[in-house]
Specification:
The complex is a heterodimer of chains A (about 270) and B (about 425). With about 270 residues, chain A is of the alpha/beta class. Chain A contains 10 helices and 8 strands. Chain B is built from 10 helices and 23 strands. Classes of the chains: A alpha/beta (about 270), B alpha+beta (about 425). Chains A and B meet through helix 4 and helix 5 of A and helix 8 of B. The structure holds flavin-adenine dinucleotide. Flavin-adenine dinucleotide binds next to helix 1, strand 4, strand 14 and helix 7 of chain B.
């Protein structure tokens, strides 16, 4: 019932939404402390030299990884200018739309969901100025899954480390995937190396990401993610590392100790 | 190609805003080649030409192997033998040249660079390359528009807004500034550029040697700066003589006969048959580099990005490498659905250009300081130190390395430099 209320809500009452969401503390994967933090930086999303600069720099390689994964699962018409034409794509935790917009430009029919209304507002406004049609919703994976919507491509980028109940989250993705659909997850790894490099250096030393955006305790090991996904009925059969270079760029590496992407599909196709 | 025009009603006036993904600004060679290259990659752009078009480029340019390959690929290399001259030998010395300096097999004092008789580079006239480009570009389906006065540019989160003094407006994702060493666009964006201390100017003229040069380029390091001759046709040469500002004015104002005498004094008596076959022109030399290479919504290319001392004949070759890398960055952004203002474009450009730009600046500044001792602190023991310098450079590995760097495409890789 609460879900319905929230889904009907439109742009103007952020406070109401926050209260409603705080009240449905069971059955949701959003970590509320994190969400407030993201609300606070919503305005910063599209500022290329602002506090989310590192996320912008991280964007090209995430897109490359998403594209490669889509290709690997035989989706997309790669000789075309808009290779993702007609693909139903879901961006979970879309933020200001840093990935949703490129995916839409490449032809995808993109739905972007995020739990923060202010962020969704930013995303909507930016998509409008970019003349892109993206269906942005204040929603969560589980709520969308309850509605029965299905997607060819689902990605959650730098989201899983903010999720409080991962098995509920992965289960929802499982329910949202088309039978042959592909799921892509990118995240920051949980070990000391990643703590030092991704959290300390990025957030505190260089102040690339506003302080406290990543909670160390929630970083996810590749092996953990693989088994949790399997439990939820998703086989992740590719793990690729993203290595940060000194000049701010990233490159693919087999070492998944800092940032990595994982992709795969359903263990048993949904009926 | 259709630009997207938006009309905004402003009282009774209708203001046209021209929307275009990329705007290229500049009237020089870099801007011309940039446009051809963007078109080659299927990237849509609008070219903005300054109305102040009194600029005649009397310079000649040496084009290295990598650059020649790139210009050929872009269909801009359509020169007759009259208009492009091969360089097969480069001779660098701090002494006058001997009678047989154009003979490849004779013993030489100084540094002799060659690649077993292979072509090392070409000399072309800037104006004829410019004409090639203009002819080629006039057939492209792009928008070329004039602007008046200085451009007023605003960088916003949703793109870049450009206005000229007649209130003509453009909206774009990215400006590529090719407006030369004094780039007004770079200055108005507040980008800091570092100028290297030199107090030199270059006198440029075309001379007839009245003897065969056998495709030799020669350069003599004089106390005040290097004097270079680049071969043209069979008997002519382009002179580039860098001098301290105090001397350059004196020499520039000499009569033709006296000027000739100075050149012969510098190069050696066996050059005494030379005649002048053009007016002399003077160019200010203010080596500078902008380490940021741009800002979100703006990328610098060519001399607006880095202007270097002409002694190595590398300036325009660096500009071509800028263009090649920019095209790679933009086309991969396009393939990833990213807007051309995406900050990753500038970081990739910077990362891929930094090494070569800084190396060439270090080499040209270093050589100029080392050999033209008046300009720096080697004043006290000039000849001994420069002899050591030349001695070190004459060692084979260093010579080979320098020749490789000068051939281009070594410190920078880009798809326009690769074989077809
Ligand atoms: C004496 C000398 C000899 C050289 N010899 C060599 C050589 O042998 N080999 C080599 O590789 N390089 C050489 N160079 C360097 C080479 O000439 C430059 O690198 C090259 O010309 C750069 O081209 P550009 O288009 O970036 O800049 P420029 O040639 O300076 O052109 C900039 C253009 O922009 C226009 N412009 C200026 N201001 C504005 C404005 N506000 N708005 C719009 N347009 C504007 C100007 O009209 C000009 O046409 C030499 C340089 C000098 C000075």
């Amino acid at each position: 019932m609460l879900y319905l209320v929230i889904n009907e809500l439109t742009a103007n009452t952020q406070v109401t939404i926050l209260i409603l969401e705080k009240n449905m503390a069971t059955n949701t994967t959003i970590d509320f402390e994190d969400k407030d933090q993201f609300d606070a930086i919503a305005e910063q999303w599209w500022n290329p030299s602002g506090s989310l600069k590192s996320l912008h720099q991280f964007t090209p390689i995430r897109i490359e990884y998403i594209k490669n994964s889509i290709k690997r699962h035989h989706f997309g018409e790669w000789e075309k200018l808009r290779p993702l034409s007609n693909l139903q794509i879901l961006d979970i935790g879309c933020g200001g739309g840093l990935l949703a917009e490129p995916m839409s430009k490449l032809g995808g029919i993109v739905t972007g969901i995020d739990s923060s209304l202010s962020t969704i507002e930013i995303a909507r406004r930016h998509a409008k100025s970019s003349k892109l049609e993206i269906d942005y919703q204040v929603s969560t994976a589980e709520r969308l899954a309850d509605k029965g919507t299905k997607f060819d491509v689902i990605y959650a980028s730098e989201v899983i480390e903010h999720v409080s109940d991962r098995s509920l989250f992965l289960n929802s993705i499982q329910r949202l995937l088309e039978p042959k659909g592909v799921v892509i997850i990118t995240t920051i790894n949980r070990n000391l190396f990643s703590f030092a490099l991704a959290k300390i250096s990025a957030e505190y030393i260089f102040e690339l990401i506003p302080k406290g955006t990543h909670d160390f305790t929630k970083f996810v090991q590749p092996s953990e993610l693989r088994s949790e996904a399997k439990e939820a009925g998703i086989i992740l059969d590719d793990f690729t590392g993203f290595k940060p270079l000194l000049d701010g760029r990233f490159k693919f590496t087999s070492i998944t100790t800092v940032n990595y992407g994982a992709s795969g599909s359903l263990a048993r196709p949904n009926i | 190609m259709q630009t997207n025009n938006i009309r905004i009603l402003h009282g009774l006036n209708i203001i046209m805003v021209n929307k275009t993904p990329i705007v290229v600004v500049g009237n020089g060679l870099t801007a011309e080649v940039m446009c051809s290259a963007l078109n080659y990659f299927g990237l849509e752009y609008t070219r903005l030409l300054s109305q102040r078009n009194d600029f005649v480029d009397t310079r000649t340019t040496t084009i290295n192997m990598a650059s020649q390959k790139m210009l050929s690929r872009l269909n801009l290399w359509s020169f007759s033998n009259e208009n492009s001259t091969e360089i097969r030998n480069i001779l660098v010395s701090q002494h006058k040249f001997s009678e047989n300096c154009f003979d490849r097999n004779s013993e030489k004092s100084g540094l002799h660079f060659f690649l077993d008789g292979e072509i090392m580079a070409w000399t072309i006239e800037n104006e004829s390359l410019l004409k090639n480009c203009q002819k080629h570009n006039s057939k492209l389906p792009s928008n070329i528009e004039n602007y008046y006065g200085n451009l007023n540019i605003e960088y916003t989160e949703n793109g870049v807004e450009i206005n000229d003094i007649r209130d003509k407006k453009w909206r774009t994702e990215l400006i590529i500034a090719c407006d030369g060493a004094n780039s007004a666009i770079r200055k108005s964006a507040g980008l800091r550029s570092t100028s290297m201390a030199t107090n030199q100017e270059a006198i440029v003229a075309r001379i007839n040697l009245n003897r065969l040069h056998h495709n030799f380029a020669v350069q003599r390091f004089l106390p005040d700066g290097p004097l270079a001759l680049m071969p043209i046709r069979t008997q002519e040469a382009a002179l580039v003589w860098s001098l301290s500002k105090t001397k350059s004015a004196n020499i520039f104002n000499l009569s033709e006969g006296e000027f000739k005498r100075k050149i012969i004094n510098a190069l050696g008596d066996n050059f005494n048959k030379i005649t002048l076959c053009s007016e002399k022109k003077i160019w200010g030399l203010k080596p500078s580099v902008t380490r940021s290479m741009g800002r979100p919504g703006l990328i610098l290319a060519g001399d607006s990005n880095h202007s270097i001392h002409p002694l190595a004949g590398m300036g325009f070759n660096l500009a071509l490498a800028d263009i090649a890398v920019i095209c790679d960055c933009l086309s991969s952004a396009k393939k990833n659905g990213l807007s051309f203002s995406h900050p990753s474009i500038l970081s990739e450009y910077r990362a891929r250009r930094r090494l070569e730009v800084e190396a060439i600046i270090a080499i040209t500044q270093g050589l100029n300081r080392l050999f033209s001792y008046n300009s720096f602190k080697f004043k006290i023991f000039p000849s001994s130190l420069t002899n050591i310098g030349l001695g070190i450079m004459d060692s084979l590995p260093i010579k080979k390395q320098l020749a490789k760097i000068a051939a281009g495409g070594v410190l920078t890789s880009a798809s326009l430099f690769s074989d077809v």
